[in-house]
Design goal:
This protein is α+β, with helices and mostly antiparallel strands. The chain has one domain (3-116, 123-183). 49% of the residues lie in helices and 12% in strands. The protein contains seven helices and four strands; from the N terminus they run ααβαβαββααα. α3 (46-62) packs across α4. The chain is globular and about 40 Å long.
């Protein structure tokens, strides 16, 4: 089995057994797997990963939303450092803003070492810190229009975040790590 095929399988299992089974994303079940592209980047250098991500973004925009709703740009090598990952995320988000494509696409970041900004008032627990962790670095390209259709009230995003924290706290770090280990076998 090729490395890309193995990465694709890990991501399919992660979406199915973690994201969908725990209902962490309210729109994942409706579009996975039929309207979701898992695109594994074969590149390892920052500038080549950047180019690959832009190509995937352009491809998503060229497709109808009924054919392709979302794309998971998976980067198994080259962005192991969370801070390198954040650097590329900043570049991609700035490009979206500069070209006004941020009105059409937003990026949800996931990384094996994902960290939230430190906040003294934060109520984060080790389990809730897992909400944006994934087997590999991922730039999840989402269509803004579809996100807005799910977020029907102003506080819906906050409710989703709180529900996810509650679910993960109830599950606990040990069970989450067991689930990740099972996914990546």
């Amino acid at each position: 089995m090729s490395e890309i095929t193995q990465v694709e399988q890990h991501i399919q299992k992660w979406v199915d057994q973690f994201i969908i089974s725990l209902n962490l994303c309210p729109f994942a079940k409706a579009v996975f797997p039929k309207q979701t592209l898992i695109s594994v980047c074969p590149e390892t250098k920052f500038e080549h990963i950047h180019k690959f991500a832009i190509e995937q973004l352009e491809y998503l925009l060229q497709q109808s939303e009924t054919d392709l709703a979302t794309t998971l740009v998976v980067v198994p090598k080259g962005l192991e450092s969370f801070y390198d990952f954040l650097d590329l995320l900043d570049v991609l988000e700035q490009q979206l803003e500069d070209t006004q494509l941020d009105q059409h696409i937003q990026i949800a970041p996931f990384h094996p070492n994902f960290e939230f900004e430190s906040d003294e008032d934060s109520q984060e627990t080790p389990a809730t810190l897992k909400t944006n962790q994934s087997p590999y670095p991922i730039f999840h390209l989402l269509r803004v229009k579809q996100v807005e259709q799910v977020l029907t009230t102003d506080d819906m995003a906050e409710k989703i975040v709180q529900r996810n924290k509650d679910v993960l706290n109830e599950l606990g770090v040990d069970e989450i790590e067991k689930l990740f280990n099972k996914i990546c076998k």
